[in-house]
């Protein structure tokens, strides 16, 4: 079992990573609470796969359980589902002495976490993360949110879980598309903070990686925890987690959400930006080559058939834009990054299009 402490004063918590942890979740959660009832918030994909196992484990630990199932997918991370969850929490008689468990990927974690943050002004919750995105990123750090018609994650809160439970065995059922989505983010962690992780990924492939998930997830969670500890409210350092995201988001928007997955957009964004910063002498020579090679290795895209002029209009919406300048996250070399403030007028120096392949 791997355990990572996230130090946030009164809001500190532990991340537990262990194969088979799902069947022991009840005992872990019992050690955190005297709650009588736990409400499990999950989605329509996970409930039939694992719902019974989770409920059994919780009941064996003495909890009364209730299960709230939302339809799977980003389209349901919305206010209607949130209201529905409030109603069901109320029907279950959940009080602030009880506990909410979010059991799913980033959508369930964000939506269920926001419900936990706001129902009765806050009910304690535990994240059980089931997708790669959730296991390496979204379950750690306390950002919870729903999407609004005006944009993604536009209503949300900072609300820390009481613990994060990660069972890498659950990834066996994660559909291929979401595996690749998660791999983009894992490679990102190697790029910004951990040359060792990057090197390990260079020796593995999409098949052999399955026997290394626990150590890879641990490394990513340690990086995320460290970054979050230094910048809980996303005012500075946490920005480095957005490496590749400025161009990535622009690609997602240009092609329409759903064409490229988020992780694929990030993959292309990392590759295009690094090719440019290397050409400008800001990044160590050879870095862009290694990055493209690793993306190819995991069948992730590294270029798009779009020009800088196509992409630039979509970059204005990025959250990292402040006034007349914005901050790009660029690599010094593999494993090391820095913030680069850029005048908006100079943005085209750093944003290139892809090379059609
Ligand atoms: N809060 C944060 O800090 C943060 C960080 C990154 C991403 N996010 C959010 O996370 C979301 C994306 O996360 P995601 O990709 O996990 O989305 P998701 O929750 O929609 O999961 C992807 C799909 O995989 C299915 N799934 C998940 N685990 C599975 C498993 N073990 N077996 C079979 N199927 C499984 C889900 O049912 C869903 O259909 C976005 O809404 C994004 O905004 C939040
Ligand atoms: Zn991302």
TrEMBL record:
Name of this protein: 3-dehydroquinate synthase
Role this protein plays: Catalyzes the conversion of 3-deoxy-D-arabino-heptulosonate 7-phosphate (DAHP) to dehydroquinate (DHQ).
Annotated residues for binding of NAD(+): 106-110, 130-131, 143, 152
Upper taxonomic lineage: Bacteria, Bacillati, Bacillota, Negativicutes, Veillonellales
Catalytic activity: 7-phospho-2-dehydro-3-deoxy-D-arabino-heptonate = 3-dehydroquinate + phosphate
Enzyme class, broadest EC rank: lyase
Pathway recorded for this protein: Metabolic intermediate biosynthesis; chorismate biosynthesis; chorismate from D-erythrose 4-phosphate and phosphoenolpyruvate: step 2/7
Family, per entry: Belongs to the sugar phosphate cyclases superfamily. Dehydroquinate synthase family.
Keywords: Amino-acid biosynthesis, Aromatic amino acid biosynthesis, Cobalt, Cytoplasm, Lyase, Metal-binding, NAD, Nucleotide-binding, Zinc
